[in-house]
Amino acid sequence: MRMTMQGQTDEDIGIALKVAFLGRPAAYPDGVGEVRAVETHMSWVFLADGFAYKLKKPVCLPYRDFSSLEARRINSEDELRLNRRLSPAVYLGVVPLTREAGGGLALGGTGPVVDWLVKMRRLPEAAMLDRLIGEHAVPRPAIDALVANLASFYREAPVVDWAPGEYVRRLGEQVQANADELMDPRYGLAAGRVRGVLAAQQAFLHRAADRFEQRVRERRVVEGHGDLRPEHVCLTPEPAVIDCLEFNRELRLLDAAEDFCFLVLECERLGDAALGAYLLAAYARASGDAPDAGLLSFYKCRRATLRAKTAAWHLHDEALADPGKWLSRACVYLDIATRHAAALG
Questions:
Q1: Cα Rg of the chain (Å, integer)
Q2: Given pLDDT bands bounded at 50, 70 and 90, which one contains residue 29?
Q3: HSE, side-chain direction, 13 A CA sphere, residue 157
Q4: By 3-state DSSP, what share of the chain in percent is helix, strand and coil, each rounded to 5?
Q5: DSSP bridge partners of 245
Q6: What DSSP letter does each residue of 167-210 carry, written as one string?
Q7: DSSP assignment letter at 128
Q8: In whole angstroms, what is the distance from residue 178 CA to residue 14 CA?
Q9: Partners of 104 in the beta sheet?
C-alpha cells in the first residue's frame, strides 16, 4: 500500500509522484483488481473497482486557487458537503494521502498529510445522461424521477434575499464580464457576434427588470447546483446528480430556472432538443414554476456565453494537448448564444 520515496521532503512530493502511487492497485486499503486514471482539467480521478477517488491538481487560475494543501482540503470538504445535497449515497468521504515513517505514501495512513482525495461510489457509465442521449436511449420514467428530485432540491435550497435591484445589477455585471472575456483578441472569436449577443442581453435585462425582480420576490433565486450538465447526471434507479460547482458560492447563487435551463441547453447542444422540451414541461409540472419564454431564452443565452468563456479559458493552459478542441467548443457555444439572443427580441 506504500510507495517509498527516500530522501524526498513533503514539499518534493509533486503531483506526478502522487498520480503514480494512486495508479497502483496496491495503493488502496481494501485491494482492487485494477485502477484507471482519468485526467481532467482540474483533477485526477482514479477509478478503482466500485469506487472513484478525486485528487485536485495544485493549480491557481482566475476562478479558483488549489495551490495550497489547505485550499485543497477545504475544497474537498466543500465538494463532499455540497454534492451530498443531491447524491448522499455517492459521496462517501474525504480521505488523506499521507507520508509514512518509512518515506512512502499511504492512502488513509497516519503520517503527515500531503494531499486529500474525495472518495465516491462509482457510477455506471452506461447510465450517464450524456451517453444515453448519444445512444438515443433516454428512459422517460427516469427523467421524471430526476426532475422530481431537482424540483424538491430547489424548493429546499437556501433562498438568496437580495435588496431590490441587486439581482438585476449582478446579472448585468456577469453578462458584461462574459462578453469582455470573449472579445479578448487572443481567442480570435468574432467580436461583432459577441457584441450582438451582449447588446441583446443588456436590452432584455433593461426591459424585463421587473420580471427578474419578481423571481427574487417569489423566492426562486437560490443556492443551486451551478453546473447541471448531462455528464453530471446518472439515471440509476435513484437518479444521481454529481459535480456541483463547489469552488465558488457566488456562481451557485442563481435562479432555479437558470440552473435547470443549463441542463436543457446541454441537451439541445448534444442534439436532443426534444428531451430539453420534455425536461422543461416536466419541471413545470413538478415544481409549479413555469417562467415565460423570454426569461428562459435569456437564461439559455447567458449560460451559453458563460460556457463559451469557460471553454476559451482552457486556452490559457500551456500544457493543453488539443487547443483546437476548446476553441471549437467556444465557437459552438457562441453560435448557441447567438441563436437564443435572437429570441430576446
A1: 21
A2: confident
A3: 30
A4: 50, 15, 30
A5: none
A6: HHHHHHHHHHHHHHHHT-TTT---HHHHHHHHHHHHHHHHHTHH
A7: B
A8: 34
A9: 4
The three grid cell numbers given for residue 118, joined into one nine-digit string: 474525495
Q: Which residues, other chains included, contact 264 with Cβ-Cβ below 8 Å and sequence gap of 6+?
A: 276, 277, 279, 280, 300
- Domains in the chain, start-ordered, CATH in brackets? 3-121 (no CATH), 129-342 (3.90.1200.10)
* pLDDT score of 9 more than 50: no
Distance CA 50, CA 55 (A): 17
Amino acid at 221: V
Q: Per-residue pLDDT averaged across 223-229, rounded?
A: 97
Scan for cell 435585462, then name that residue: 205
- What is the rounded average pLDDT for all residues in the chain? 92
User: Which secondary-structure segment (H or E) carries 60?
Assistant: strand 60-61
- Cα separation, 276 vs 18, whole angstroms: 41
d(CA 254, CA 163): 15
In three-state secondary structure terms, 159 is: strand
